[in-house]
């Protein structure tokens, strides 16, 4: 029986994307590949809303994106601020500690988004070289208001780095808001199997990059930029061998994102997320996020008495694979539902059905169909015309 992958990345991928992976591999100097890379870069700029600066696509996972986003823009010992709303915010603390002892952390209480006015105050008074904010922290499902946060940066020397790994392609986002560095990973809302980090660098960050030395070798954007610039002019260039087949897959997916249109796509994610939240609420499951919910995933606590491993394995038997928790103290008390990429009404119905049945199997008193009914009500008039197949 087919089961669907509903973890927060990797996700289910469309058939044209998967078939691009299995074509015979071309030379990275082949003009057909170069033009595909060029188109993928052009689509990236559009999806990131970046009119200037440059886009990047590098082989590696989202963690390489995190490293790239800081190791090119600070000097050793610089003062930096990490805004942490979960596990991936905390990862920035560990990463930046390799380069500097002066890492300040602003951590709102669990489940709450960062307060933009607190960040504004810190940016005005903290002499930070750079601030990192995780747009959606995948461990909590909390979404930060990057747009408002970004409005505090333009008149300062501080760079704003946005980790968009669990947001870009599914949530509203634009570099034009005043974000200096942003990136994601292929496996989430960009709808391409794992293996690429994809991002954009704005003008202010380009200027910084030209003044400071790189703190790592493989993620040195000064070297990669020459490759991207050449590719954008349909010319070959080399720094490290690109992941040829994945770039064909990425181009296919990015093209379908831009064909659907970012506004329509984020709206679709919003409707799917509302259906999940409505159904979970109907079933009596409380989310970790208190108000600022992500549209790319939902993160509910399990009811008292329901054990995570047996909940997850029964849900899988009922047709949907979900993920367990990541926050150390509570990781066995909650689970995570990824709903990004080409998700729509079928994924909602299969997932909610599996959640209801697994809860019941695990002794929780649930009326089968109650969550499904709520999800159907929410999706009843939504436009799900998108069909990539
Ligand atoms: N940041 C966020 C917000 C993430 O969700 C993840 C992965 N789940 C990462 C960074 C790290 O990405 P990867 O696992 O692809 O290295």
Notes on the structure:
It is a single chain. By secondary structure, this protein is an alpha/beta fold. Helix content is 40%, strand content 13%. The chain is built from 13 helices and 14 strands. The strands form four sheets. Strands 2-10-9-8-5-3-4 form a seven-stranded mixed beta sheet, sandwiched between helices. A three-stranded antiparallel beta sheet has the order 11-14-13, covered by helices on one side. The radius of gyration is 21 Å and the shape is globular. The two termini are 21 Å apart. It binds 4'-deoxy-4'-aminopyridoxal-5'-phosphate (PMP).
Global Rg: 21 Å
What is the number of beta strands? 14
Low-confidence runs (pLDDT<50, min 5 residues)?
none
Give me the strand/helix succession: EHHEHEHEHEEEHEEEHHHHEHEEEHH
Average residue pLDDT = 97
Identify the strand order in the major beta sheet: 2-10-9-8-5-3-4
What's the multimeric state? single chain
Tell me the overall shape: globular
Sheet with most strands? 7 strands, mixed
Bound molecules: 4'-deoxy-4'-aminopyridoxal-5'-phosphate
From the N-terminal CA to the C-terminal CA, the straight-line distance is 21 Å
Total count of helical runs of at least 4 residues = 13
> Which structural class matches the secondary elements?
alpha/beta
Q: What fraction of residues sit in β-strands?
A: 5-15%
Sum this structure up briefly:
The chain is of the alpha/beta class and 389 residues long. Helix content is 40%, strand content 13%.
Label this structure with key terms.
389 residues, alpha/beta, 3-stranded antiparallel beta sheet, binds 4'-deoxy-4'-aminopyridoxal-5'-phosphate
């Amino acid at each position: 029986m087919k089961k669907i992958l509903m973890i927060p990345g990797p996700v289910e991928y469309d058939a044209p994307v998967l078939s691009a992976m299995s074509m015979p591999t071309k030379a990275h100097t082949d003009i057909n590949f170069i033009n595909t890379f060029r188109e993928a870069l052009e689509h990236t700029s559009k999806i990131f809303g970046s009119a200037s600066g440059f886009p990047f696509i590098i082989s590696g996972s989202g963690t390489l994106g995190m490293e790239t986003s800081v190791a090119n823009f600070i000097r050793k010992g610089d003062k930096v601020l990490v805004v942490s709303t979960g596990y991936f915010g905390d990862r920035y603390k560990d990463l930046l500690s390799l380069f500097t002892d002066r890492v300040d952390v602003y951590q709102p209480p669990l489940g709450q988004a960062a307060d933009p006015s607190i960040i504004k105050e810190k940016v005005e008074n903290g002499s930070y070289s750079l601030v990192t904010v995780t747009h959606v922290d995948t461990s909590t499902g909390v979404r930060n208001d990057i747009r408002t946060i970004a409005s505090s940066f333009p008149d300062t020397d501080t760079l704003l780095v946005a980790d968009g790994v669990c947001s870009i392609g599914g949530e509203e986002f634009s570099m034009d808001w005043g974000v200096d560095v942003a990136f994601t990973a292929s496996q989430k809302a960009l709808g391409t199997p794992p293996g690429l980090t994809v991002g954009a660098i704005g003008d202010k960050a380009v200027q910084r990059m030209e003044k400071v030395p790189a703190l790592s070798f493989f993620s040195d954007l000064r070297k990669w930029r020459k490759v991207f610039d050449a590719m954008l002019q349909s010319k070959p260039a080399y720094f490290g061998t690109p992941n040829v087949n994945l770039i064909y897959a990425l181009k296919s997916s990015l093209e379908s994102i831009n064909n659907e249109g970012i506004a329509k796509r984020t709206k679709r994610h919003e409707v799917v997320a509302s259906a999940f939240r409505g159904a979970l609420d109907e079933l009596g499951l409380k989310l970790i996020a208190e108000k600022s919910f992500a549209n790319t995933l939902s993160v509910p606590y399990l009811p008292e008495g329901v054990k995570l491993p047996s909940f997850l394995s029964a849900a899988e038997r009922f047709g949907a694979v979900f993920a367990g928790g990541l926050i150390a103290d509570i990781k066995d008390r909650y689970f995570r539902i990824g709903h990004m990429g080409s998700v729509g009404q079928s994924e909602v119905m299969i997932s909610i059905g599996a959640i209801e049945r697994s809860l019941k199997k695990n002794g929780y008193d649930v009326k089968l169909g109650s969550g499904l009914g709520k999800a159907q009500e929410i999706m009843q008039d939504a436009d799900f015309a998108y069909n990539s197949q």
